[in-house]
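Subject: Sanity check before I submit

Could someone independently write out the structure tokens for this chain? I want to compare against mine line by line before I put it in a report. The sequence has 129 residues.
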Amino acid sequence: MKNKDNLIPMEEQQLNILRNLKSKNFIISLIGEVIQTIADKKIDKKTVCFKCDYCNGKKYDLEYSINKWNPVVTLVISFLTQKITSDFNTVIREEKILEKLVGELQVFIYTMKSAGLNPALSELSEMIE
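---
Independent answer below. Compare away.
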């Protein structure tokens, strides 16, 4: 892990976003809105879950599932870092900012998956029901 003095500008911006208490809920909301794009199928975001095989503690532990989500969360945080270059609190007060970012993130994720640029998205998609 890098210490604070060795961070590149993008990592500093990511850290600034994550330090904001509201950012975690915003990121969860954003992921919830794009879950169908991640899963490549229509699903109810209120009842989305892992397939039974992946909930079997004998085959896959919780750490396995967490590790499948990590690259996706990192991708979303990196995306936000590109889009939110000013104060996070100011940006999230903008009208329809969530809807705007959802649309852009859906296109970004779809493009990444279509081009095969992020295998983690495809792996997670296989786990979601």
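---
OP: Matches mine. For the report I'm noting this point. The chain has a mean pLDDT of 91.
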